[in-house]
Write a structure and sequence with these properties.
The protein contains ten helices and two strands, in the order H-H-H-E-E-H-H-H-H-H-H-H. By secondary structure, the protein is mostly helical. The chain starts with 11 loop residues before the first helix and ends in a 16-residue tail after the last helix.
Amino acid sequence: MTVVKKIWAPKPYDLLAEQLREAILGGDIAEGQALPTERELVEQTGLTRGSVREALKQLSAEGLVETRPGRFGGNIATLPDRDNIANSIGQFVRGRRLPLRTLHETRDMLEPALARLAAVHRTDEKLSHLHRLHEELVASVDSFHVFSRMNMKWHRAVASAAGNDLLSATLEAISFGVAVSTTIDEYDTPETRGQVIRAHGKILAAIESGEGHIAERRMRRHISATHARATDVESTDVPLSLEE
């Protein structure tokens, strides 16, 4: 007769990683502050040097520890940034083989809201950046490839101007795959590029004037028109960066 169940005990390095993770995220170890040395961690915990290194390796992979060489280097506490979030979401999209339809639906929800937030929260610096990108977009109207890149940069800049890192990181993670699906040569004509420029100009005007509801409505209309030109939205071959 079985009276006990199997007992699972976490590995020692998992326990150390959890303690250090909580200390960093909780602020007990501030961002930029050096963690105790490997030798000190061995002495404090009683673990082997190999276990300490494995714990630090886990935290490094999570973006919570950065190893810096040199006399004033060591294992430095860091906090996840937008790139970490975007990379994690991007890996989820690729690993799950999510179709472009899912990316489009996500964009349908995100971008109009980001445009509204940009109208409310944008700074003068962010607004100037949007104007510069719009001018570069207009200047590149005769080049399909340059125009496509500038178009993507402009949309990311709107997201950045919204002042919500979580939402903008999500858009960042899917923006390239969406852009590829909506700028295929068959659909990207000079007429289409002209329509994009006019739509961007109207959205930018609403952001500049602080009219969030109008910026949201115009972005939703723009995204709907863009997705109407997309092909094969059930495809799972979703590139997520310019390098792929």
